[in-house]
Amino acid sequence: MEYAGMRRQFSTYVPPGLCDSQAKAEAPGRGSALFALHCFGCTGGTMLEAFMPVARRHGFILVVPEGVDSSWSAVHCCGTALEMGLDDVGFLRAVKDSLEDRLAATHGRAVADLASRGSTFATGWSNGGYLAMLAAARSGPSPPLFQAIAPISGFQDAGLAPVPQPVPLMMHHAEDDRFVSFDGCCRRGETPPRCCCGITGPCYSAPKVFEEWAVQVNRCEADSARKPIVVEWKHRRIGVTCSSASRCAANTTLCRHRRGGHFNQHGFSRTFPEAMIEAIGNFFAGSAVRSS
Fold this sequence. Notes:
Layout: E1 2-3, E2 6-7, E3 10-13, H1 21-26, E4 33-37, H2 44-58, E5 61-65, H3 79-84, H4 88-107, H5 109-116, E6 120-125, H6 127-137, E7 148-152, E8 169-174, H7 206-216, H8 222-226, E9 229-235, E10 238-244, E11 252-257, H9 274-287
Parallel strand pairs: 4-5, 4-6, 6-7, 7-8, 8-11
Antiparallel strand pairs: 1-2, 3-5, 9-10, 10-11
Helix pairs in contact: 2-9, 4-5
């Protein structure tokens, strides 16, 4: 597609049998669009492979945009897109606006009609996580671009614009992440860089951003974000603690992985723990809102 004078690309994956009458009756989230945003230096293929099982299980239409030179412009990160000052939030909105016509042309009117009544979600890894949060927070007076987000190893800090309605959030970040620090990327004076790729922000930690989103966006009571409901679960040797604020207008959860790194232990082609992907899929399914 053409956007802002540049040729931009995105791909879609529609799970088999999406429009079967029995399938449509099983879950209200069927036909919802799930945007999956790749990391800096990656391509959409990584996200496509990781989230196809989620799309099949829940009946989501997977939407995989491609960044310019494998990068996204998202305030703090990264690469060519950031240097050029590209409007990648605008690009994502253009993709969303064109999705119904694309699906009608490639998969038929029934799939397009199903998508038109579904929600729109976003997950993003690293640079893609930065962009997912930015896009959800900076919609201006319009409804949020995404109805729920699940950033992985990337987050935005203070200065969130007023959001017209709550946006469910599930953050996943590892305490030992050396690419995007759990404690924030802010560089002070002559101290060594805390994050990769020239990232110098945000200065807030992942828990601080979680609290900020809980209060500013999802209207949680402040104390509930500072003293959240905590659930622990194990995945092999990786301990995971998920904390959810209570008394909120929308689900607000931070999952901290004690030994997950940047979720790239096997390289940048095959990466995420299956349990984390499954949790994200269930989170989106629970956030689905279908119009009549």
